[in-house]
Amino acid sequence: MQETKKHKNDNKFLETKKEKNQPVPWGKRNWVQLGVFLATIGIGIQFFIYVHQSSGDGVIIVPRPPGVEGFLPIGALMGWKLFLQTGMWDPVHPAAMVIFGFACLLSIALRKSFCGWFCPVGTLSEWLWKFGDRFFGKNYQLPAWMDFPLRALKYLLLGFFVWAVFSMESLSILSFLQSPYYKISDVKMLHFFTRMSTLAMVVLILLGLASIIIRNFWCRYLCPYGALLGLLAIFSPTRIQRSPENCISCRRCSQICPYHLPVDEKLGIISPECNGCMDCTAVCPADNALELKTKGTGKYVWNTAKMSIVIIGLFAGLVFTARMTGHWQSSVTAQEFRIRLQTIDSPGVSHPAVRFR
Ligand code: SF4
Ligand code: SF4
What we know:
The protein is mainly alpha-helical. Strands 1-2-3 form a 3-stranded antiparallel β-sheet. The protein has one domain (2-349). 58% of the residues lie in helices and 3% in strands. One iron/sulfur cluster binds next to helix 16.
């Protein structure tokens, strides 16, 4: 009787090791990831065409996509510091601030779900390790003595960027955000890909290979953006919660977790690594044993449908509000952009020196 109450399905579900290691089937989270990934590719192509048209004398038909600023997180961090100190919203790359704010807000509300559901780099990283899992039959896990210090790397990188930005005076930030370099920094970023150096290409290939072999190599060890979101997520009232009364100690949750978290041993997961993917809840065979819940909301349990709606709804709502209130479109006109593009390779448009306190 007890067995029947606890198991969602019959016991055959747990019978073989092979079945235990079955991946979680394609679900709503993967659709959200695919949608955002394709939208990012579309934005990249649109921006490439815009830059190409702006380089010539002809009519510019394709508008500049503000979403490209999602790849300027350091500028966004500076923009937010300036905004919090002076109330001034960066008019050069305002969308960068909106997207950065969305990622931070989401992490505080729903764990590091920006990484697990939205970030196109996280999605690519996940596809690579899943490919490796299929191709080699498994992913490799670094021994604890290597894993732990390597995980500190992303926090060190984050610490450096936060120190650099927060030790800058407001005036210095303002002058950086209005510099010729920052006004065209989105094109500098595009050139990273279109004029890639041999060294950058080798590093990217090595990162890709490492990501095939080791789960979430970039996100787990190197991404300072994810490190910041993980630290914010520690304060999130939403977390994976395990009920020891209903748990049957099958360990499927820990085996499937892409971050190797000991889900089956904890009552709640507060780790900054948890990206709210909900793969653990998807494979849990016991009723009400493992759920994503928000503290203070009674018995409210999240599922992937609710997560999809809230994540997409929040992003769409923020972008819509920003557009309507003039906090989304860059103040750099197409004409100014065209003029600045002509001097992009001159020494005057290199990264400006910044003054720290
Ligand atoms: S604990 Fe669960 S929700 Fe968090 S990363 Fe691991 S599998 Fe995903
Ligand atoms: S919480 Fe984890 S160990 Fe417990 S029943 Fe669910 S999958 Fe198995």
